[in-house]
Design a protein that fits this description.
Oligomer: heterodimer
CATH topology of the largest domain in chain A: Rossmann fold
Distance between the termini of chain A: 51 Å
Largest interface: A-B, 69 and 38 residues
Structural class of chain B: mainly alpha
Strand order of the largest sheet of chain B: 1-2
Number of helices of chain B: 16
Largest sheet of chain A: 6 strands, mixed
CATH architecture of the largest domain in chain A: 3-Layer(aba) Sandwich
Number of domains of chain A: 2
Helix content of chain B: 55-70%
Helix content of chain A: 25-40%
Number of strands of chain A: 17
Strand content of chain B: under 5%
Number of strands of chain B: 2
Strand content of chain A: 15-25%
């Protein structure tokens, strides 16, 4: 089977999906949750509750703080204990609502049953409003508010919806488990998204290291297409396993053979990309009136004794999850939120999960400690690996010299920070570290210049 | 665990290092090294031993005591330079000439410029060319291989030398080939006068295939050299078969394969982009053919590579990777 993939660069890290056999199981409720107001890209949400208020599961506790922002709901029932700054996983203070858990009482109108609802409402406006009110954000990593992405700017039309089921980061298996266990819901979610975007085609892209998921979702689509015409045009596209296949621009290139221009948006080439977990959240929001109150988190690592995929309520302290599975292993030196290529190293285990938390990964020293930096041998491996066609060795040199003009001319602003350059450098040069900092400076210069115009 | 390690992504690294890449090159050279010792005998082993030992020792002494830096010997690059230098020398080269070559390669061509990654010219070729112009008698005193346990070696000229000499004396290519019993199949397996690296085409190609399979090098530079030489020599030999040798002869003789597979593909002294590499290879092929056909030297590979080494900064400036979404 000749499978498609993106056209430039990429690397092949060992996929290490050691938790792929772990079914998603619900984590027992923690005694307290801390719900952050900054769980999405854009303006922080504004609290709607006060200290002492009683809340139920699914009750809105914060409203959008701007156009690009999202609703946030209580993930538990109980009493609001405090509203104020609390350190996130990097140690930066974020406004959080602390809720002491009492029982598990859900808001009226939320359908908590497992019954599958395949009939889709024709009223797109109402559907979109439901998605907005449910606080759905992109769960593939960027946490961009979904309702904004579903409203293309005037003059732009969407030709294809792409559901991102690549999960190209090593170790992560929550999307894979979701496809296996909630494939029906994901397909309904895809059909809803397809209808809202007025497109005929939806493609679910899955890497070929997950053949079970490809087969399973294909059979579901076949069944559903017999029931309703709303499922016409949905298909599965197997993609060659290569990192970063799930990068938005790379995925569009792989599926449609179209490259989003530098600085452009997917909609410029007629594409909208949504993650598998987001499609599930859309299903929950539209078919079950259920806002985002929980999400699947992979807890994994070779040094971690118990691999797991857990359904975790938003705002659960990380330490609580880890303790439930037996605590931090003695030989782990680093805990990562997300995958090993783009995830963030956690500085503070007292931090709580957010909607976009996808994994907790434990790594030993021999797996993660970087080697001593040595001289560049000009092998060009970084440039071969870069999926954006950049030349990290050159950007590194220009960044050291702080040559902002040349950095911009050599497209540093296109960097997607996937980490392929640093991953493949034989001399252990901290390419991405320097490029990331210089990219921030160049983007600042570009913004200031555009503001002047 | 008391403290968490916090650092920016990515958190994992490919199983590759400068050392592992250089070690792969050493492994890839082994078939040719073994073949050359078998064909040329113990003299060849001495040249190899002196060359590698002096390259490694000199790199250690210079980095450690002259430049007062951490020694870079551990990265195996001095071993690669030592092997390549030895494979460019006749098996009869006296040990002190080898030592001088190694001193030039490591001391001047490599470390004066700042060491691995900073040198403009390929150290092994620079060392060889330095010896070629300084000690021409030793450097053109080739040996007809007699094998490890064979009779005494007879000295003679290389196939390229025979043809060059013969043509200058008014002979024609087919006559000279027949007269000296040169055949292509023989050239493929060895048994011709030359330096170690010229002796066995099959062993060199096997090593190069290993490098390709391990993704240590890309094929573009090598392919563009080979294709350029093949096309040019085909055209010339068809035009005048009495004056110009053909493609098979040129590809299998002299340092062509050693140069195309192991010297021109040196990371440091070749262009970064694929397109730059192809232009670089065309340049090497073109210059080699011109020198072989019209120059004073029978062999042009070393000079061609050195000249093209000097163009690499320009090629890197002109040719870049294809960027995503900027067509």
């Amino acid at each position: 089977m000749a499978t498609r993939t993106f056209s430039i660069g990429g690397v092949h890290p060992k996929d290490a999906k050691i938790s792929r056999g772990c079914a998603i199981e619900p984590l027992p409720l923690p005694p307290t949750v801390y719900i952050s107001m900054s769980q999405h890209i854009g303006a922080p949400a504004k609290p709607l509750v006060a200290v002492g208020d009683k809340v139920k599961v699914g009750q809105p506790v914060a409203e959008p703080g701007g156009f690009v922002s999202a609703f946030i709901h209580s993930s538990v029932s109980g009493t609001v204990k405090s509203i104020g700054p609390r350190k996130d996983l990097a140690g930066n203070p974020q406004t959080c609502i602390e809720i002491a858990v009492e029982g598990d009482e859900w808001m009226e109108g939320i359908d908590t049953s497992d019954t599958l609802v395949t009939t889709i409402d024709d009223d797109n406006k109402a559907v979109l409003e439901k998605i907005r009110l449910a606080g759905v954000v992109g769960l593939g990593g960027a946490t961009f508010p979904t309702h904004v992405k579903l409203s293309p700017p005037p003059g732009k039309t969407c030709e294809m919806l792409i559901i991102n089921g690549c999960e190209c980061e090593p170790y992560l298996t929550s999307d894979f488990r979701t496809l296996l266990e909630k494939g029906e819901q994901v397909v309904v979610g895809a059909a809803i998204l397809k209808q809202v975007l007025h497109v005929d085609k939806a493609v679910i892209g899955i890497e070929d290291n997950k053949p079970e998921a490809i087969k399973h979702v294909r059979s579901i689509i076949k069944e559903f297409q017999k029931i309703s015409s709303k499922y016409a045009g949905i298909s599965v596209m197997p993609l060659m396993k290569k990192y970063p296949e799930g990068g938005e621009k790379q995925l569009i290139d792989a599926v449609m053979h179209r490259q989003v221009r530098s600085g452009g948006l997917p909609i410029d080439v007629g594409a909208v990309v949504q993650n598998v977990a987001t499609a599930l959240a859309v299903y929950d929001a539209v078919q079950k009136n259920k806002p985002i109150v929980d999400n699947s988190v992979t807890v994994t690592g070779e040094c971690f004794p118990k691999q797991a995929n857990l359904l975790v309520r938003v705002g659960t302290p990380l330490q609580y999850i880890i303790d439930y599975l037996g605590g931090v292993p003695a030989d782990a030196v680093k805990v990562i939120s997300g995958g090993p290529m783009m995830g963030k190293a956690i500085a503070n285990l007292d931090a709580a999960t957010v909607k976009g938390t996808s994994a907790l990964l434990f790594l030993r020293a021999d797996q993660t400690v970087r080697g001593q930096e040595s001289q560049c041998i000009r092998c060009g491996r970084c440039a071969d690996a870069c999926p954006m066609g950049l030349e990290p060795f050159l950007l590194n040199k220009l960044a050291k010299n702080a040559d902002m003009e040349q950095l911009e001319a050599n497209a540093i602003q296109d960097c997607i920070e996937c980490g392929c350059c640093l991953y493949s450098c034989p001399a252990n040069i901290p390419l991405l570290d320097r490029i990331r900092i210089a990219k921030g400076q160049v983007l600042g210069i570009i913004r200031a210049r555009n503001a002047k115009k | 665990m008391s403290k968490l390690l916090v650092s920016p992504s990515p958190h994992i690294h490919a199983d590759v290092s400068t050392k592992s890449l250089m070690r792969d090159v050493v492994i890839a050279l082994m078939p040719a090294v073994i073949a050359s010792v078998v064909f040329y005998g113990w003299g060849e082993l001495l040249v190899l031993g002196v060359s590698v030992a002096s390259c490694v020792l000199l790199e250690y002494l210079i980095t450690r005591y002259l430049l007062k830096k951490t020694s870079t010997v551990g990265d195996f690059s001095a071993v690669v330079t030592g092997l390549l230098l030895a494979m460019n020398l006749p098996a009869t080269t006296p040990w002190w000439v080898v030592l001088i070559g190694a001193a030039f390669a490591i001391g001047v061509a490599k470390l004066t410029f700042g060491g691995l990654g900073q040198n403009v010219f390929n150290p092994a070729i620079a060392g060889r060319v330095f010896l070629l112009v300084s000690f021409p008698t030793y450097m053109t005193h080739w040996e007809v291989p007699q094998g490890l346990f064979g009779v005494d070696a007879i000295s003679g000229a290389t196939p390229l030398g025979i043809i060059k000499e013969g043509l200058m004396q008014g002979g024609s290519v087919p006559e000279l080939m027949a007269q000296h019993g040169l055949s292509y199949t023989q050239m493929l397996y060895a048994n011709l006068g030359g330096s170690a690296g010229e002796v066995c085409a099959l062993a060199l190609v096997a090593g190069f295939l290993y490098l390709l399979a391990r993704r240590v090098v890309k094929p573009w530079i090598t392919l563009s050299i080979v294709c350029t030489v093949a096309i040019l020599t085909t055209a010339f030999s068809l035009a005048d078969p009495t004056r110009f040798t053909g493609p098979a002869f040129n590809l299998l003789s002299g340092g062509m394969l050693l140069g195309a597979c192991f010297m021109a593909t040196d990371y440091v002294t070749s262009p970064m982009s694929n397109l730059g590499g192809i232009i670089f290879g065309i340049g090497i092929g073109l210059l080699t053919v011109i020198i072989r056909y019209f120059g004073a030297y029978p062999e042009g590979m070393s000079f061609a590579i050195l000249i093209m080494n000097a163009t690499v900064p320009l090629l890197n400036r002109w040719f870049h990777q294809k960027k995503f979404g900027r067509a």
